[in-house]
Amino acid sequence: MRAFSLPILDEGGKPTIQPEGKAHFSTKSNFSGKGNHAVVWMCGKQPEICRSVMMKMKCLLSCGWVESGLLKTAGPPLLDEADPCYDDSGRPLRCIPDFVNAAFGRQVASTSTCNNRCDSRHLTDLLNPSNVTCWSSDPVDTGTVVNLTLSLGKKYELTYVSLQFCGPKPDSMAVYKSMNYGETWLPFQFYSTQCRKVFGKTPNVLLTRSNEQESLCADARSGIEPPSGGRVAFSTLEGRPSSYDFDNSPVLQDWVTATDIRVVLVRLKPVSGSSNETEVAQYSVSDLAIGGRCKCNGHASKCVADKSGSLSCECKHNTAGKDCEKCKPFHFDRPWRRATAHNVHECVDFLIHHSDDNPIQDYC
Ligand SMILES: [Ca+2]
């Protein structure tokens, strides 16, 4: 039990100090909050302490003001004391969800059904790297294209897309992304020993600040390749000049954003014109990994699923939306902006912003 005083309202609507643990109140009273925080609402002058409380609370915006704000009781806090979106004094901090393998355990749609003998769950089930499970395509000739499509369910900011192969690496493959749940697709990266011939792309184009959203083509094979078990990993920011100033690069923030990833396995062997071109073989992949963070624009430290399983950021800083991409209602006093390390760009309640010289009594 912590020793905090408990302000509740007397009959005249004024806060009174009660012994610890004795306060009882209902939603009919001028309280909002639960757990170990609450706010008293009434007209009057705003004490300094309440400003931070207001920022941390889901406030009920009735006609009122925080007169005597903080209520603490025993039990788990409503607001995690270590909430990375705020410091100890309630000041907002830029916060981001954990780095994850966003593909793990997700379903992958394949254009090769393998007559239902192949289990696409084996593409995203990596638990024990020394005991891998493999997905294999239908037996195809070496020029048959197979798509593997994975939906992330919301926007993520991706650091890498990688494929671990059970069989030989394909000679040519491509990685595409969608930013609108599969409506349209944009190329992320191409791999081929014959970039011009297969994809019409010049290999290894130099990236500058003027073409940072350019998809590149590279040879995924380097030196002596193992006959099977190789890995192809696409790093979304590698070689892109503004990656060192990612906070201030909307171009790259956009570049790494995706809701869906599609891997297109194009050819197993080089286009040679030889009889080998029609050799029957299989694509075989043990793991598709997509490394990144749920995109919350610096305004949430985690993403949560609702009852239907739909993922959304748990938005803080008075932001709202699936990706905390807008200010929540009644907090439009300045335009929404993505948080940076130096400025959180918290959305501001009209009342808070105008409180310094204009007490709330004017609005009551
Ligand atoms: Ca596997």
Automatic annotation (TrEMBL):
GO terms for biological process: animal organ morphogenesis; dendrite development; motor neuron axon guidance; tissue development. Residues 91-293 form the Laminin N-terminal domain. Pfam families: EGF_LMN_ATRN (PF24973), Laminin_N (PF00055). InterPro entries: Laminin/Netrin_ECM, Laminin_N, LE_dom, LMN_ATRN_NET-like_EGF. This is Laminin N-terminal domain-containing protein. One of its GO terms (cellular component) is basement membrane. Gene3D superfamilies: Galactose-binding domain-like. Keywords: Disulfide bond, Glycoprotein, Laminin EGF-like domain, Repeat, Signal. The keyword Transferase does not apply. The keyword NADP does not apply.
